[in-house]
Amino acid sequence: MEIKKTATAGTLESSDAYVVAEPFDTLEVDLTSVVYEQFKDEIISQVKAVTDALGVSKAKITINDRGAVDCVIRARVETALKRAGGEM
Amino acid sequence: MSKLISSIKEAVELCGIRDGMTVSFHHHMRNGDKVLNMVMEVIAEKGIKDITVNASSIFDCHEPLIGYMKDGVVTGIECGYMGAKVGRAVSRGMLKNPAVFRTHGGRASDMIKGTSHVDVAFVAAPSADCMGNCTGKYGKSACGSMGYAFADAQTADKVVVITDNLRPYPLSGFSIPEVYVDYVVEVDEIGDPKGIVSGTTQITRDPVGLRIAQYAAEVIEASGLLKDGFSFQTGAGGATLAAAKYVKEKMLAGGIKGSFGMGGITGYMVDMLNEGCFESLIDVQCFDLKAIESINNDPRHMEVSAEQYAGVSGRSAAVDSLDVVLLGATQVDTDFNVNVHTDSNGYIMGGSGGHSDTAAGAKLAIILAPLVRARLPLITDRCHCISTPGSTVDVVVTQRGIAVNTSIEKNRQLEEALKAKGLPVVDIKELKAIGEKITGVPKPIKQGDKVIAKVLYRDGTLLDEIHQVAGE
User: Fold this and answer.
1) Residue B236 has pLDDT above 80, yes or no
2) Can you spell out the DSSP letters for chain A?
3) Which of B61, B119, B169, B453 maximizes the CB count within 10 A of its CB?
4) pLDDT at residue number B332
5) Sheet holding A7-10, edge to edge
C-alpha cells in the first residue's frame, strides 16, 4: 500500500496511542512511549507486523504511546496507515 | 515582652541559622504553601550552605528547592512525601546526601525520641498572637488541622511562627501553645488556601475505580468489622472516596453507628460525621475547605498531632484503635509489599505519609488499585521500593480480583468469608499473571548504583533504599 498523504489515528489519553502516518522515502518508526523502557521492543514489533500485513515499505510512522496494549497499538497504526493510503 | 520581630530575615539571624543546620516545615498549606520558599530564599540570600530541609511533605510548589540543591544551599531533604518535581531532581542524583523518608508517625516520633534533630522549626500559622499561640482553624489562609507541626514545635531548638493573621493576645482556640515559640513574624501571605485541594478529592466516575471501590466495601462488610463502634480511615483518592461512599450506604442502611473517622480529612468524611456514621473525626490534616470549616466549628471534629495520630513514641496512637484503612499503591509485590514512593520508571513521586503507620495499626489494611495502569501491571515480583511491608497488608483489591494475604493467620477466615460471598478471590501470583496477560511482562527498569534516598520505617529502622535513575 502506498502512503499518499498525512493521516492520524488515536488519542493522547492514558492507555491509548496517537499515531501519525506520512509519506516518506523509507520506512521509519519514531516511537515515544511512557513505557519505553519496559515495552519498546514489543511496540516496534507490533508496528512491523502491521506494515508487513499492509505491504507498506515507505512511510514515516510517529507514535506517541500513552501505555496502549498491543491490540490498541496495532489498531491505531493500521487505521493511520489506511487513512494515509486513502483506503479509509 | 514580645516575640514579634520584623521579618523572616531577622528570624534567620536571631535563630543563628548557619551552615550544616536542619530547618523544618509542615505541609498543611499543601501545594499552596509559601512559607518554605520564603524562608529558604532568605537562607540562600545570606549565603548559608549545607542546609537539611526537614518538611513533613514536599510539593511541586517547592520547586525552588531544586535550584538550592544545585547551589549547595540544600544538601539534605527529610520528608514523609515528595512530589514528582523535586522527586525527579532527587532521583537524578542532584541532592548531595540521600533524602530520608519517614512515615508521618515516624517523623514525629523520631523528633520526640531525639533521633531526628531540628535546629529551627518554621510554623506556618493561619492565625497567631504575638506570643506564638497559633492555629490553622481560622484566618484568611485557614488550613484546619496543624497536626504535623506539633512535634517540630515541641522539639526544635528554636521555633518561629510565621502568620498572615496576627490576632490580639491570647489567641482563642490555639493549637500550638506559646510555650514552644521563640519568635513570631507577620507576613502578607503564608499560602494560597486553594492549593490545599491538590490532587484528587472527587469521587471517581471511572467504572474500573467504581468496581474496585465496590469490592473494597464488600471486603469490609465480610470482615465483620462493620458494626457499631466501627472506625475508618480513607484517603482522598478517587477510588478510596468511592469506597467510602459504599461504606456509608451500608452504614446508613444497617443503622450502624461508627466511632471515628480518621486521617487527612475530606468533606466526604465530614458528611459521614454529620449523617451519623461516626461520633467524631480525628484529623491530622485537612484535604479541602469543607473539612477546614468543620474542624473550626464542630467540637466532634478533633485536631490531633502526628505523634498521637500515628507515632510509636507515645504509649499509644490513634492508629492502634483503627479498624479499617483504605490505601493506594503504585506497585504491590507477591509478598504484599507496597510501593507508594516511586513511579514505574523509578522516579520518586510520593512517599509513605501515613500509609505504613495506618497499615500497621489497623485491624484490616486494604490496598485499592487498578490491576493495570497505562500498560504497567500493578503486581510485580519485588516492588521497586518497599514503602509498606507486606506483613502489615491484609487485602489487595483490583477490578479483576481480590488477593488476601493469608500468610497472616487471621486473614484465612476472611478469605473464606469473601469466597462465601461469591467475591473473586485469587492468589496474588495468579492476579499478577492476569495483569501480565493483558500487558505483557515489562522489562525491569535500569537502576544506578548511587543510593539517592533511604526509606525509614515508623520505628526509625531502614526499610529500603531508592537508587538513582540510570541513563540520566
Assistant:
1) no
2) ----S-EEEE-SSTT-EEEEEE--SSEEEEEEETTHHHHHHHHHHHHHHHHHHHT--SEEEEEEESS--HHHHHHHHHHHHHHHTT--
3) B453
4) 98
5) A7-10, A17-22, A59-65, A27-33
Contact A35 B446 (CB under 8 A): no
Asked if the Cβ–Cβ distance from B443 to A39 is below 8 Å, we say: yes
Q: Which of B395, B359, B456 is nearest to B103 (CA)?
A: B456
ipTM for the complex shown = 0.89
Architecture of domain A7-84 in CATH? 2-Layer Sandwich (3.30)
Domains and CATH numbers, chain B: 4-196 (3.40.1080.10), 207-445 (3.40.1080.10)
Task: Assign B107 to helix, strand or coil.
Answer: helix
Instruction: With CB atoms and an 8 Å threshold, state whether A37 touches B374.
Output: no
Q: What is the pLDDT of residue B471?
A: 64
CA distances from A12 to A18, A29, B146 (A): 6, 18, 40
Ranges of beta strands (E only) in B108-167 are 120-125, 127-128, 134-135, 158-163
B93: left (phi over 0), alpha (psi -120 to 50) or beta: left
Q: Which of A:14-73 have CB within 8 Å of B?
A: 14-15, 34-35, 37-39, 41-42, 66-70
Q: Round the average pLDDT of chain B to a whole number and report it.
A: 96
Where would I find the beta strands (DSSP E) of B218-259? 231-234
Select the residue of B374, B440, B445 nearest A34 (Cβ to Cβ): B374
Condensed to tens digits (0 to 9), the pLDDT of residues B312-337 reads 999 999 999 999 999 999 999 999 99
Burial B10-46 (b: 16+ CB within 10 A, else e): ebbeebebeeebbbbbbbbbbbbbbbbbbbbebbbee
B195 CA to centre of own chain: 16
Q: In this prediction, what percent of chain B has a pLDDT beyond 90? A: 92
Q: What is the pLDDT at residue B197?
A: 73
Q: DSSP character for B58?
A: B
Q: Which residues pair with B230 in a beta bridge?
A: none
For chain A, domain boundaries:
7-84
Q: What is the pLDDT of residue B201?
A: 64
By the 8 A CB rule, do B241 and B203 touch?
Answer: yes
Which residue does chain B place closest to A13, by CA atoms? Answer: B374
